[in-house]
Design brief:
94 residues, alpha+beta, Structural Genomics Hypothetical 15.5 Kd Protein In mrcA-pckA Intergenic Region, Chain A, five-stranded antiparallel sheet, 2 helices, 17% helix, S4_RNA-bd_sf, rRNA binding, RNA-binding, protein biosynthesis, tRNA-binding
Length: 94
């Protein structure tokens, strides 16, 4: 399955065109390497997606051509979610 389609079907990203744009900007890593929208993904692959200052790392569990909203959580497992501090900002307090 194509990367951009997986991101849309799994609802990690709402629209396929947005998933394509994010991939084209180099904000998606597939198994540690920059991935293009047409890259083929398979179960067991790890994706690292940058959403602004937030970086989410997920492992693909299963592929499906279409999925209901409640079934999308079975498609991936969130491994890590971190926030990258902007270097121009002062200290941040939790």
């Amino acid at each position: 399955m194509r990367l951009d389609k997986f991101l849309k079907v799994s609802r990690l990203i709402k629209r396929r065109t947005v998933a394509k744009d994010v991939s084209d900007q180099g904000r998606v890593l597939l198994n540690g390497r920059e991935a293009k929208p047409g890259a083929v993904v398979k179960p067991g692959d790890e994706l690292e997606i940058q959403f602004g200052q937030r970086i989410v790392t997920v492992r693909i569990e299963k592929l499906s051509e279409s999925a209901k909203k409640e079934d999308t959580q079975e498609m991936y497992t969130v491994l890590k979610e971190e926030y990258r501090k902007n270097e121009n900002e002062g200290p941040s307090f939790p």
